[in-house]
Structure formats: C-alpha cells, structure tokens
Amino acid sequence: MDLKNIRIVISGLARNIASHLPKVLEWMRRLREEFHQDSCFVFLTNDSNDNTKEILTNFQAEHAGYTKLYVFDGLAAKIRARTARLAFCRNMVMNHIHANHPTFDLIFLADMDDITVNVDAAVIADALRSASSFEWDMIAGMAQPAYYDIWALRSKAIGCNYDCWDIIRHEKYRGASHQDAVKRHVDTWRFSAKPDAAPIPVESAFGGMAFYRLPATRGCTYDGVNKSCPNAAVFPQSLRIGNCLYETCEHVAFHAQMREKNGAKLFIYPALSFSPAS
C-alpha cells in the first residue's frame, strides 16, 4: 500500500491535556507526512482550564491550510453527561469531514492524552501498510501490554457482547462490591496480543485509536446515551435490578450503524500497536 496515494483526515478531541498535547501533535504531524499532501487535521476542544486551546490554536496557525480547529467552550454546561458530550463532539468532527472531504480515503481517530503520548508514527504507518493483506473498514488499536477499552468492546469472537459498566451498576444494586464487579466485567475481558497476531473480528472496539475507511462511515452517528436497557438481550431481568446506566460508550452506536448501514467489517488490529504512558 503506497500511503502517498491515500488522502486521510487525522482527528481527535482535546480537553485539559496540555501536558501531553505537544508530543501527541508531533507524532500526528509526522504521521500526516506519510500520506498524500492533501491530507489534513480536524480537532475539537472544549472547556479546558489549562492551555490546551492555546496549543491547538498555535498548531492551527503553524499548519494553516490543512488544519481545522473547532472550539466549543461552554459545552459542558449545556451537555452534562460526558458520553453525550463526546458523541456531540465526534459527530461535529465527522460532519465536517463528510462535508469538506467526502472523497478522501481514510479517517484516523485518536485519543490525544496520556494514552497515545508515546505513539511512534512510523509503527502506525507500517501497520496500515500491512493491513492491505485483508479486507477491513475499521481497524482499532492494540495497546500494550493489554487491550483496555472494554466499554467500547463488543465481540462475538472474544465473548464480550454487553455494556460492562451497566451490568456493574446492576450488580452493585444486588450487593456486589465495586472491585468484584469490575473484576468480572472489565478485567475478565482484558487480553494481550503480539503485534504479529491475526486481526480480531469485533462488532465494536476503539482502544485509543482507529483507522476508518471513509465510505463505511457515511450516514453513521455517535450516541452516548442509552435509550433503553443496553443489556436486556444479554442478562435476565433478575440480574438487572435498579436503574440502568444513563451513559454508554459512544463508539458502540457508531460501529453498529457502520455494520448495519454499510456492511462494515471491523477488527482490532494487533499490528496497530502502542504503549500508553504508565
């Protein structure tokens, strides 16, 4: 795969991450250089009380012509639920991408905090090149030493097909300790995979970063709020005592729509490997 022929949007959300942001922006800058010269950045920030906004504003000025920055200060007061706010922000970014870069090939989404501060852009680019060996529409990152993003994870292949934090809430209503419930429904699903391991099919995952084929994201939106019990089809009513969790991982709805509307094939890709800051 010749990355110089691929046009990509590199994107992320940022809030109160000034201590990590310069290093993250630097590896993102190097990553962009691997691709077609038309490739660009789209960032969104809101309500930071450090200098996150200033760092991004300066980056936009230094890379004018291919960097778009959205600033939504005051958003936290308007949308209280964190996952609903994340969904709003991700939808703003995705709407911008589809309106302004509809013919681009790929979208790369990444967390911009300590999770990705140690990313090596060359490793990410090489992982994408190697992904030409199989058919995919989304490949999610594989943190080392273990995949950690269980709230976003849905996978028949792995066995995790439910909202972990919702069932933890129900178990605590039934008298379980927080620690024991987390062991059962979060720690149980953490797993390791070497970078040369085979792609792992999923219905949803994120894990700090992901590449998306742009056409497979058309017509899809993020949603960070449960409209009904997210575990009704998985756990019997006797285990779902108390109110269901209002918030949910916003990636799950987006990935479900990718599959349902566009027939997308989603994977965790172990070659897309990085080590979060300890």
UniProtKB/TrEMBL annotation:
It holds the Pfam family CAP59_mtransfer. This is Glycosyltransferase. It comes from viral metagenome.
